[in-house]
Write a structure and sequence with these properties.
- This protein has 191 residues and is mainly alpha-helical.
- It has two domains: 5-74, no CATH class; 99-175, no CATH class.
- The chain contains eight helices and no strands.
- It is rod-shaped, with a radius of gyration of 33 Å.
- The chain starts with a helix and ends in a 16-residue tail after the last helix.
């Protein structure tokens, strides 16, 4: 444990090698006193001694055979391995749009026709156009987005280009072309 330093670790390593149990116990008590003196501000904290004994056991890799005044933590609970997360299984129809677009299209198909659904479809189409351009780095026709929406909805949603006005969207690199090359350098005046 780095907060105690190399000297305390050497004392713990020495305590493990001591043959006599009473001498080993006395050495462990001395090590706990030294560890407690390193952090005097924590002496008033509840369970401070218990934490010190736990730290001693961890530093000794639970090989120190002494009578601990407290119940020690189980070594397997100190560094538990997290449960494996299930990897999402399922094919994404168009990888450049991602999974979220598929989920939004499912929701849009479930919604009744109306102004709210039309606005959602407009927002989905605009997002699809942005993601397509980021993937392809060229402009995309609205007809391609409309065709992909129809494919996503299995023919349930048929939009027209005049109804869906996505406007002009360029890739971020094309949008902000002035990266310092086109700007004139200001000359410094010498006084």
């Amino acid at each position: 444990m780095p907060e105690y330093g190399r000297a305390v670790q050497k004392m713990v390593d020495h305590a493990i090698t001591i043959e006599d149990r009473t001498e080993r116990q006395r050495c462990a008590n001395t090590i706990i006193a030294v560890m407690g003196n390193m952090f005097p501000q924590l002496r008033d904290v509840a369970e401070f001694k218990h934490k010190l004994w736990d730290h001693l056991a961890v530093m000794a890799d639970f090989k120190l055979d002494i009578d601990y005044p407290y119940e020690l933590a189980d070594p397997s609970t100190l560094h538990p391995t997290p449960e494996r997360l299930p990897y999402p299984k399922g094919d994404i129809r168009y990888r450049h749009y991602g999974h979220c677009i598929e989920e939004m299209m499912k929701k849009a198909c479930e919604m009744p026709e109306g102004e709210e659904r039309n606005e959602l479809l407009r927002l989905i189409a605009a997002q699809m156009k942005k993601e397509y351009i980021l993937w392809n780095k060229e402009s995309v026709e609205d007809s391609k987005i409309i065709e992909d929406i129809k494919d996503y909805s299995n023919g349930q949603i048929c939009l027209s280009e005049d109804k869906l006005n996505l406007g002009i969207y360029r890739a971020p690199a094309q949008q902000y072309k002035h990266n310092g090359k086109n700007q004139k350098k200001k000359s410094k005046k010498k006084f």
